[in-house]
Amino acid sequence: MSSTTAVAAPTTASSARNSYYALFILSLINLVNYLDRYIVTVALPDIKKDFQLTNTQAGYLGSFFMLVFMLASPVSGFLGDRLPRRYLVAAGVLLWSLATGASGLATTFAALMVARACVGIGEAGYGAVAPSIISDLFPREQRTRVLSFFYIAIPVGAAAGYGLGGWLSEAYSWHVAFFVGGAPGLVLGAMAFFMPEPQRGAMDGPEAQTKLPFLVGLKGLANNKSFWWTTGGYTLMTFSIGGLGYWLPTFLVGERGMTPGQAGLLSGGVTATAGLLGTLAGGLLGDKMDRRMEGGGLRMSGVGLLIAAPLMFLSMKVSSLAPMFVIIFLAQFFIFLNSGPINAAIVNGVPPAFRAFAMGLNVLFIHMLGDAISPTVIGKVADLSSLSFAIELNALPVMLGGLALLMAGKLFRHVSA
């Protein structure tokens, strides 16, 4: 078999099955990732009560987790470009699952902060590496769709975290919610050891750069304007949606009179449905837009955020629950359109040998300036005014993120090798 044939695409039923098996396992892990991450948000009212926390202090819990996660991500990306990636994935999943269970054992706020930091380290071992594995399993013309399938796990996992966390916190305690949340990852972490390990650049042709000196790759990334505009737009969106996800259940309990179980169930249901439909639509439309023009998926994502911004603002102005959730649904649908196109643009816009680090660097920035600080910032604004006003103000980053993604789409160029 020639080298060209070997790297063109999965040409046998067996290789195709291996590719879809790995995608399935990675997507399940991503679902559990966000389930564990969002359990804490719906359990937050009970955690605040037990540890006597202010809104600002409660925001520290989310921000500290993100701080550790974002700092560990470039390190994970660096290792992911050099070591077998399935081992990094497996180790990361096992670590964060054990740490999630340990969160339920915390008897002090400090102990809970340490446990959540360990969750961040484990998730970083997975988050920066998984998209690079997927990019080496599927050809470029399919990547937006398969990455959209992978990122469906975000809204579904968040919804599961909301629903499971709310139910278990109300029926038992927030401690039990963490114990249950950590269990699935132990099984999936063991399964990850047996995933296929694709050759780097296997779907990018025989001239793809599968080895690249780190400083050379770093210089190329520094000059990649589309990457930085994409990262800027993604950061603004992450600030806003991360802050909304963190505080929405607390808002519904404190300002709309719902129980934690009701808030978790409704928030989770809306997020799961809007996220599922938006992510699937983004994958299909993103591939179609990319075929029409370079950066077409990014341009579509920018338009989606510009539509979502006024909807997010309007949702806090509506006091009736049914219209409010309809508007939140529409805002989240247009936000989740971008999951596949943005991440496909990152892996398609850098050499195969530098994809894991590029993803890790992207993760660093979107969280360092995004949802690592937004829970605390929104909590502080809420302490000074109200939580509803803080969420209204949170629509501004969504609008600015849309403008940044439009610029990224204009500048985008595929990497040819």
TrEMBL record:
Annotated ranges, domain Major facilitator superfamily (MFS) profile: 22-417
SUPFAM superfamilies: MFS general substrate transporter
The keyword Ribosomal protein is assigned to this record: no
Membrane-topology annotation of the record: Multi-pass membrane protein
A Pfam family this chain is assigned to: MFS_1
InterPro entries hit by this protein: MFS (IPR011701), MFS_dom (IPR020846), MFS_spinster-like (IPR044770), MFS_trans_sf (IPR036259)
Keyword Transmembrane helix belongs to the record: yes
PROSITE patterns assigned to the protein according to its UniProt record, in alphabetical order: MFS
Subcellular location, record wording: Membrane
Domain of life: Bacteria
Sequence intervals crossing the membrane: 20-40, 60-80, 87-107, 113-134, 146-168, 174-194, 227-248, 263-285, 297-315, 321-340, 352-369, 389-408
Swiss-Prot/TrEMBL keywords: Membrane, Transmembrane, Transmembrane helix, Transport
Principal subcellular localization: membrane
Protein name: MFS transporter
Organism field: Archangium lansingense
